[in-house]
Q: What sequence folds into this?
């Protein structure tokens, strides 16, 4: 039996629905989706500068879960920047 997912505390959402390279229509770009959890992990770690433990406590998850979320988010952002993909922000978990 699968363990139920712990509810994460997320304090906001993205200001826009996506970010994309300038001058290229969204329909012509590959899309990389960032979840609300991943965006919150980036905000806490990279914008607010919290340690992984502080950020995990803020989100109400374990340090390992937070570390996994921030690692996935950073990988997605780097992939989009390097390859010119659009970053699309998901409203769903």
A:
């Amino acid at each position: 039996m699968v363990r139920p997912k712990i509810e994460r505390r997320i304090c906001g959402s993205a200001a826009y629905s996506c970010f994309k390279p300038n001058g290229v229509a969204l329909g012509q770009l590959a899309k990389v989706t960032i979840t609300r959890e991943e965006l919150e992990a980036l905000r806490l770690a990279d914008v607010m500068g919290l340690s992984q433990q502080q950020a995990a406590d803020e989100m109400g998850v374990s340090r390992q879960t937070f570390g996994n979320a921030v690692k996935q988010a950073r990988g997605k952002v780097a992939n989009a920047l390097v390859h010119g993909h659009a970053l699309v922000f998901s409203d769903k978990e």
In short: The longest helix spans residues 63-83. Helices lie at 36-47, 52-59, 63-83. The mean pLDDT is 90.
